[in-house]
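writing this on my phone so excuse typos. first protein, seq and then structure
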Amino acid sequence: MRVFWEWDSLLLNDKTQVVSELQECTEWLESFFTQTGFFPSAQATVVRAFGMGTGGWALWVDADRKDVRIRRYDARMVIPLSWDEDRVTECAFVTRAFYRGQAVDQL
C-alpha cells in the first residue's frame, strides 16, 4: 500500500494542473474539478489502479438535470473490448444500477 500511495502522491499532488490554451477553459476546468471534488477521488482511483492493475475515469451525463460528473472505475469494473500487445484501445465500464428492485450491471 505504501508504494501505491507514493505513486499517487507523485502523479496527483498540490502542483498538479489541468490547463488549456484558452484561459476561460482552464478556469472552467478548475471550477468543475473543485465543485465535483475530482482530485481527492482521483487520488483514490490511482491508488486502487496500482493495487488492482488498472482503473479509469469516464464522464457521466444526466441530460435531464444538465449535470456532468466524472465516475471512477477500478479493475473489477473495466472490461477490455479491443487491444493489442501494447495497450487497450477500447473498453466498457460497468456500473451497478437497479431495475425493478433488482441489482443489475449496466455497461
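second protein below, same order as before
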Amino acid sequence: MVIGRYADGSGRVVDFHALRHTFITRLARSGVVPAVAKSLARHSTIVLTMDHYTHTLIGDERAALDRLPEIRLRRPTLRTVSATGT
C-alpha cells in the first residue's frame, strides 16, 4: 500500500487527485464559472480543468435541460407556406 492512498473493499482508490476531481466537479455542479474553477484548481489551462477534472453524470445533463425555459407554441393556423428551398 502506498502512503496517502486508500482503497475501499471494491478497490476504489482515494488519493489527493481523487479529491481534486471531487472538488472541481462540485464547483462545476454548483454553477461556478469555468474560469473561476480553473483559478481555484491552480491549473494552467481551462482544458485541463474542464476535460480532465470535471465529471458529469446523466443527472447533471437532465438538470441542465430542466433549467431551459419552456417553449410555448401557438396553435397552428391553416395557411399556405411557400417553399424556401431550405
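Residues 16-66 form one domain. thats all i got for now
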